């Protein structure tokens, strides 16, 4: 069974789409609320119908809602269907998924783990195209100097900062960002 569903969180109306091999996409709140989130899902997944989530998708919804209320779930248990994601981006997303709630890394640190510091910009681009936020926690990946950098979700960098505040994020062992 495949489909998509909207669900309320502490930061606004989110959505996810699922298929037989796991989640195919997650959507953080759009700037104009529920109608804009729904419209974006219909554009992203024109072949999927909105409907009640299956059991796997429902467990993912509960986990995402919990994370956005401050629970320390890394969401690593959520299955993602990455068939439409390049191998390079999959490698970056795998690294990002290992960042625990409340911690951050920089684009450069992820690039170094990939084996080439010069890949920092490519890491940033991958984060900007992340179809699974916050399951792939791109909000925990910061620019050089632990600056927030960009964020493609509704609300931009302010949403990223709000999500980090919920987690009481501490970049690389530093004092809290807030």
Summarize the structure.
By secondary structure, the protein is an alpha/beta fold. The chain has helices at residues 33-44, 55-67, 87-97, 107-114, 120-128, 157-166, and strands at residues 3-9, 12-19, 22-27, 103-106, 141-142, 170-171. The chain has two domains: 3-67, Double Stranded RNA Binding Domain (2-Layer Sandwich), CATH 3.30.160.70; 87-171, Arc Repressor Mutant, subunit A (Orthogonal Bundle), CATH 1.10.10.10.
Any key phrases for this structure?
about 180 residues; alpha/beta; Double Stranded RNA Binding Domain; Arc Repressor Mutant, subunit A; three-stranded antiparallel sheet; about 35% helix; about 15% strand
Task: Describe the SSE topology.
Blueprint: E1 3-9, E2 12-19, E3 22-27, H1 33-44, H2 55-67, H3 87-97, E4 103-106, H4 107-114, H5 120-128, E5 141-142, H6 157-166, E6 170-171
Parallel strand pairs: 4-5, 4-6
Antiparallel strand pairs: 1-2, 2-3
């Amino acid at each position: 069974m495949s489909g998509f569903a909207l669900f309320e969180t502490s930061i606004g109306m989110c959505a996810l789409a699922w298929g037989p091999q796991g989640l195919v996409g997650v959507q953080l709140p759009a700037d104009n609320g529920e109608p804009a989130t729904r419209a974006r899902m219909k554009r992203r997944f024109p072949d999927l119908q909105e409907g009640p989530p299956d059991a796997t998708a429902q467990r993912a919804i509960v986990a995402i809602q919990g994370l956005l209320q401050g629970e320390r779930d890394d969401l690593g248990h959520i299955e993602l269907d990455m068939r439409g994601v390049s191998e390079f981006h999959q490698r970056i997303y795998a690294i990002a998924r290992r960042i625990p709630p409340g911690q951050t890394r920089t684009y450069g640190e992820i690039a170094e783990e990939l084996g080439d510091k010069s890949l920092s910009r490519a890491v940033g681009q991958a984060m900007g195209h992340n179809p699974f936020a916050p399951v792939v926690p791109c909000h925990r990946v910061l620019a050089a100097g632990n600056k927030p950098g960009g964020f493609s979700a509704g609300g931009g960098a302010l949403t990223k900062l709000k999500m980090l505040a919920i987690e009481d994020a501490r970049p690389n062992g530093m004092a809290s960002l807030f």
